[in-house]
């Protein structure tokens, strides 16, 4: 199961990605969590220790140079387009129990389709994880899936679009849905988050008619308190865990091979 989680800024992507990762892990799966959001905080949400010391892959200049054959930042030079990356997930992840976390770092947008060493490297790592690994993969993305190129997107089994009840969030969700179709992503699901009443749920249902809705997570003051305290999402209230379980079980049913 390879799942990409996306949606407008602040809708709850990282919270849901972290809780889903833990939920799959607790059910006995091995999980690879990928932080593909430039403003990364998946590690804190997963409660990994020494978060400040973690170096994102994109900043490992020596490693990129060794594998791709050119210094990061070089454009138009000759370099390997299919560098060796099969050892990267295990060597350069941080691990806690059965969750391996890979932090990508900021992936610059390639201008005019040109490739630079760091983009080639990160793309290959993502491709490798999506196509060659057996673990459940949960990718925490930013507000778009633009840097999933067509080739990479083929490895994604489902995009989970998180929306909150607001026009701006819905606009982003619609755009992501269109893009997912263009990229021929196999399945696109919707999760509504921060829902305060049935009207808000209906608003999201109405606005995103063409997407399959998995779950609506309530606005939770208990979850807000967790973020105000130590941020340990394992202390989230039951109402949140129940919804995460619902999403996990739905994905298991839908994505079973
Ligand atoms: N169901 C909820 N109820 C109340 N607050 C929530 C809920 N889900 C998320 N939040 C709050 O929303 C804020 C943003 O959550 P989160 O960081 O998971 O969003 P994000 O989409 O990953 O944001 P970013 O785009 O910045 O990466 C957090 O402070 C979190 O407490
Ligand atoms: Mg986030």
What does the secondary structure layout of this molecule look like, with pairings?
Blueprint: E1 2-7, H1 13-26, E2 31-35, H2 42-45, H3 61-68, H4 88-91, E3 94-96, E4 99-103, H5 117-132, E5 136-140, H6 150-153, E6 158-163, H7 167-182, E7 187-195, H8 198-207, E8 212-218, H9 221-228, H10 238-255
Parallel strand pairs: 1-5, 1-6, 2-4, 2-5, 6-7, 7-8
Antiparallel strand pairs: 3-4
List the defining traits of the structure above.
about 20% strand, 8 strands, binds magnesium ion, binds adenosine-5'-triphosphate, Rossmann fold, about 260 residues, 8-stranded mixed β-sheet, alpha/beta, single chain, globular
SS elements, strand count = 8
Number of domains: 1
Between the first and last Cα atoms, what is the distance in angstroms? 9 Å
Question: Major sheet: size, sense and barrel closure?
Answer: 8 strands, mixed
What's the gyration radius in Å? 18 Å
What is the highest CATH level, the class?
A: Alpha Beta
Q: What's the total helix number?
A: 10
Q: What would you call the structural class?
A: alpha/beta
**CATH-defined topology:** Rossmann fold
Read across the widest sheet, the strand sequence of neighbours is 3-4-2-5-1-6-7-8
How much helical structure, as a percent, in the residues?
A: 25-40%
Bound molecules: adenosine-5'-triphosphate, magnesium ion
The fraction of residues in strands falls at: 15-25%
Q: What is the arithmetic mean of pLDDT?
A: 91
């Amino acid at each position: 199961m390879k799942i990409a989680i996306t949606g407008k800024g602040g809708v709850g992507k990282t919270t849901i990605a972290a809780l889903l990762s833990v939920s799959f892990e607790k059910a006995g799966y091995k999980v690879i969590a990928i932080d593909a959001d430039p403003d990364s905080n998946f590690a804190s949400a997963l409660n990994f220790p020494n978060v400040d010391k973690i170096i994102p892959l994109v900043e490992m200049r020596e490693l990129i140079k060794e594998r791709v054959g050119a210094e990061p930042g070089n454009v138009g030079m000759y370099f390997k387009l299919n560098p060796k990356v099969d050892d990267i997930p295990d060597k350069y992840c941080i691990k806690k129990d059965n969750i391996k976390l890979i932090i990508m770092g900021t992936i610059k947008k390639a201008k005019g389709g040109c490739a630079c060493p760091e983009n080639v490297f990160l793309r290959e790592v993502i491709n490798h994880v999506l196509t060659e690994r057996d673990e459940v993969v949960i990718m925490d993305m930013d507000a778009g899936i633009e840097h999933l190129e067509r080739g990479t997107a083929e490895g994604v089994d489902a995009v989970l679009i998180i929306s909150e009840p607001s026009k701006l969030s819905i606009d982003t969700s619609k755009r992501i849905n269109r893009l997912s179709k263009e990229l021929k992503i196999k399945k696109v699901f919707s999760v509504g988050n921060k829902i305060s009443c049935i009207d808000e749920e209906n608003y999201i249902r109405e606005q995103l008619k063409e997407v399959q809705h998995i779950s609506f997570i309530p606005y939770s003051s208990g979850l807000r308190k967790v973020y105000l305290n130590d941020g340990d999402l394992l202390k989230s209230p039951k109402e949140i865990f129940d919804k995460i379980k619902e999403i996990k079980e739905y994905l298991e049913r839908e994505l079973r091979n």
